[in-house]
Amino acid sequence: MKYRTLGKTELKVSVVGVGTWQFGGAWGKDFTQDEVDAILDKAQEVGINLLDTAECYGHHLSENFIGNYVERRGSRDKWIIATKFGHSALDKNNSSHWAADEVRTQLEESLKSLRTDYIDLYQFHSGPDSVFDNDELWTMLDKQVQAGKIRNLGISIGSNDNLHQTAAASKINAKAIQVVYNRLDTTPENRVFPSCIEQDLGVLARVPLASGYLSGKYKPGAVFAANDVRSNHDKELTASRLRRVEEISRTEVPANVNMAEWALAWCLKHPAVTCVIPGCKSPEQVETNARAASLDLVADNHPQSVS
Questions:
Q1: The whole model's pTM is what?
Q2: Going by fewer Cβ within 10 Å, which terminus of the chain is more open, N or C?
Q3: Confidence (pLDDT) at 237
Q4: Whose CA is closest to 117, among 153, 76, 152?
């Protein structure tokens, strides 16, 4: 495993992390604590130290799985835990909750769920600019940083081209940006990444396998099961993605290299990217993801690399 400093934070993060959206049941599968334990045990074994979650992944369910694991293992100091705020899985109207007092309540609930007294990276979760531009919110969060409940603030931008929030990061003392970035969606390279480099912001690349399209498992014409989130994707767009993946596999992925490993390493070669945070269903997938760090594409002389 390789490690890089996450922007202006003092966090040394593994270049491959674990995204935990799936623990909330979003992948059409309900995880057990034993299954989560096995995944996180394997992650620690292969050198991964970053876990990315959110309060709305099953209404603190993902956080609870993580907190239960970390508490029983007595391993809080071994992990860098990133979570998010702004939504509620219990809100059937899919409303957002951005008022300062609502976010303060979310923070306390996340701390309780994670069985910890601090969060390493607390991220604004894909909210619109209208609620982002709220001085009261950021003043409250700054007080939580001063109180030690939050180590660092971050922004998980909803649009891959949201320069408004990215450019304002340093002003609100956010030190990391999370954004969708993968071989099929390179939009952040145009404006977001240059701003991140200019401000020395860490970058977490989410959906680095393009919702599994870049896993190498699916060929043109593939049909996804009804309980698979990809079955809800636009059919023409899905067909186009699968054709593009086949072309990439044929023209860009070296022979005898696992496509998923290559796709993660491809993200990590960009000088702005600190870490990729793919999801996973099993310890075996964790191990496959971790091997991306050893591919030649992941340079040791990356500007944020740490030996």
A1: 0.91
A2: C
A3: 75
A4: 76
